[in-house]
Amino acid sequence: MLARTSLLIFSATLFCFPAFSYAGEWSGYVSGEFRAFANSPADARQHDNNLSFSAQPEYYTDWDNGKQSFTVVPFVRWDENDNERSHADIRELTWLKAADDWELRAGIRKVFWGVTESQHLVDIINQTDLVEATDGEEKLGQPMINLALIRDWGTLDLFVLPGFRERTFPGEKGRLRFSPRIDTDQAMYESGDKGQHIDYAARWAHYLGDWDIGLSYFNGTSRDPRFIPGSDNKGQDVFIPFYDLIEQWGLDLQATLGDWLWKFEAINRSGQGKSYTALTTGFEYTVVGIAGSSADLGMISEILYDERGDEALTPFADDILLAGRLTLNDEQSTEFLLGMIFDSDDAARLLSLESSRRLGANWKITLEGQAFINITNTELLSGVRRDSYLQLELARYF
């Protein structure tokens, strides 16, 4: 379905952009990534340490005095062990027409909503690319038509979303996966149209003094599947993803008050069993110029709540995040983020590290890691209880 939808959108884009002779700009990166795991895998079919390579070029051009533009961002990864992680995607393929008080976009895009650090409850337009990262930050491109109305009372974005994208999951040999594994070949839908169901969304965004406000609505196929126990063609136990039709209202707020950032996200969703509410809220306080230096230290705390409790499709149903962000503000843009999520019901912990530094004008080195602490066999994260890792990535930008 995605290939057919992408072809139709690309054909429409060519109609709007009749000649590729306009001078454009190329940018992007290529990278190599190495993951080292602290323990042998829980499943003998899974791999140990892992090497992979990725590339994400970007082409951009504009014309009509900058009022129209065209962007293409493909992505590809080769993974040493996991065939499901070796994949390609079109992150963006977008035509933009801009006017004084409106913008029209058509094609494939990534759209981000949200303000909190630990999770983005309101961010529902794009599907999560889970084979890329477990934190939900990496997204698949979504076919869409997006009209933005820019007014004094705020910006209203209207979306038509044809072509549903299924979530990616690690394969049989992959690490950081559910146990039993997710069998995407047997994916099920509530809608009789399956992946051809057309979804709709809208978001109003504005600011009032120190407050940034977003109110969003979504109606369509959930990006978060439920999981049904089943078996694959080899008779092995698997989970089968089931994609419900849902309706979701979302609210995100951020207040900038001096050195404080106060953040809030909440959703109310119906369609996956009983209607429920979930929220994430907290703050980030920045100490500027530590000990007279140019470095800044941000102290972050958030509360994660989901009223479904143990029945939630997320491991973050009643948890607390404590984190620190160190920004050196040096020429190399060196940054560190260290955080831990505490489960308030038991001793389970999730420790995360993100750090990066530029090397010269074109290189960037990134060190990331996660440690899964006191994860029991009965928890949603039981499949990754032995998958604590460090990941080193070296990227060349152009």
Structural class: mainly beta
Mean pLDDT: 93
Approximate shape: globular
- Please, how many domains? 1
The residue ranges in which pLDDT falls below 50 over 5 or more consecutive positions are: 10-15, 17-21
- Give the helix proportion (percent range): under 10%
C-alpha Rg (nearest Å): 22 Å
List keywords for this structure.
398 residues; mainly beta; three-stranded mixed beta sheet; 1 helix; 21 strands
What does this structure look like?
The structure is a single chain. By secondary structure, the chain is mainly beta. The protein has one domain. Helices cover 4% and strands 54% of the residues. It contains one helix and 21 strands. The strands form two sheets. The chain has an 18-stranded antiparallel β-barrel. Strands 8-12-11 form a three-stranded mixed β-sheet, with no helix packed on it. Strand 11 and strand 12 (237-243) form a beta hairpin. The longest helix is centred in the N-terminal third of the chain and has 15 residues, at 2-16. The radius of gyration is 22 Å and the shape is globular. It starts with a helix and ends with a strand.
Q: What's the short story on this structure?
A:
The chain is mostly beta strands. It has 1 helix and 21 strands. A hairpin with a 7-residue loop joins strand 17 (318-327) and strand 18.
Task: Please give the structural blueprint.
Layout: H1 2-16, E1 25-37, E2 50-63, E3 68-79, E4 87-98, E5 102-109, E6 142-151, E7 154-161, E8 188-189, E9 199-208, E10 211-221, E11 226-231, E12 237-243, E13 245-257, E14 260-271, E15 273-287, E16 296-306, E17 318-327, E18 335-343, E19 349-359, E20 363-373, E21 389-397
Parallel strand pairs: 8-12
Antiparallel strand pairs: 1-2, 1-21, 2-3, 3-4, 4-5, 5-6, 6-7, 7-9, 9-10, 10-13, 11-12, 13-14, 14-15, 15-16, 16-17, 17-18, 18-19, 19-20, 20-21
